[in-house]
Amino acid sequence: MENGRVTSRAGLLILACAVACANAGPRPSEAVREPPAPGIFVQAAASCTPSDPRLPLDDPPWRGIVLLDYVVRDDGAVADVRAEVLDGTPPALQAVATVKEWIASSCRFSPATLDGVPKSVELGQIVQFGPPRREVPMLQAGMTRPSVTACAGPHPRMPQEAREKALGGTVVVQYVVETDGSISDIELKAPGPVVFYRAVREWLSGCRFEPATDAGRIVAVRIVQPFIFKIER
C-alpha cells in the first residue's frame, strides 16, 4: 500500500505509513516536495529494573491500561511524570501511583540526541495490568486487508505544540479494526512522543474501514502501523 503525503499550511509534512486515508480519496494534483534529509535523531533509551511496574501482591488485582507520559531531559533525568487511565474500572489510584514511581525510580535513561547534541523529549508508553480483555489476531496471510472508507481528515493533524517547537518524530500505534469497520484499542506499541500518539488516536477514532475477511468471513484484526511526523525545511 502506498504512503500518504500531505503538506500543511505551516510547511509541516505528516507521513502516515501503511494503512492510511490516502487511499480513501484521489491524490493531490500537485506533487509534494520531499524535505531535505533531516539531522540524525536518536531517541532516548531506557534500562528498567524491574522491566515493568508491578502492583503489590496483597492488593486486589486491578486490570486495565495506563498511558504513562513523561519528559526525558537532556541530562537523562526524568521529569513531569503523568499517568492517565485509558481502560479499567475505578479506583485506579494504586495503578497510577505504581507506574509513576516505577518510571521515576526504576528506569535509567540515555538522553535523546539530535546530531549528537542531547535534547529533552516527551515520551509516552502503554502499561497494561493483567491479561488483555480479549484476544484479537494480527493481520495474517490469507486475510483481506482492511481498507479505509472514510476519515474525519486526510491525515493526523500536526499538534500545535510540535508546530511551535518545530518537532518531528515517529510513533508506532497498534489498533483493532472491528467487524463493523470501527476502530478500537488504539495503543502505543512502543514508547514514543505522546503528543503524536494523541494526534493519531484522535484521527483514527474518526476513521471507518471496510473490515478484514478470513476465508470469506468478516473478522476483527489488530494492526500495527508507524506514523512519521516530519518537518519540511
Please characterize this protein's 3D structure.
This protein has 233 residues and is mainly beta. Helix content is 13%, strand content 41%. It has a 5-stranded antiparallel beta sheet, covered by helices on one side. The protein has a 3-stranded antiparallel beta sheet with strand order 3-8-9, with no helix packed on it. Strands 6-5-10 form a 3-stranded antiparallel beta sheet, with helices on both faces. Strand 5 and strand 6 (78-88) form a beta hairpin. The protein is globular.
Low-pLDDT regions:
1-37
- The helix fraction, in percent, is 10-25%
Strand sequence of the main sheet, in spatial order? 1-2-18-13-14
- Average pLDDT confidence is 80
Main sheet summary: 5 strands, antiparallel
Total of DSSP H or I helical runs spanning 4+ residues: 3
Please state roughly what percent of the residues sit in beta strands, choosing from under 5%, 5-15%, 15-25%, 25-35%, 35-45% or over 45%. 35-45%
Calculate Rg over CA atoms. 19 Å
Q: Topology of this protein?
A:
Layout: E1 4-7, E2 12-16, E3 41-42, E4 45-48, E5 64-72, E6 78-88, H1 93-105, E7 107-110, E8 112-114, E9 117-119, E10 121-129, E11 143-144, E12 147-150, H2 160-165, E13 169-177, E14 183-188, H3 194-205, E15 208-210, E16 212-214, E17 217-219, E18 221-231
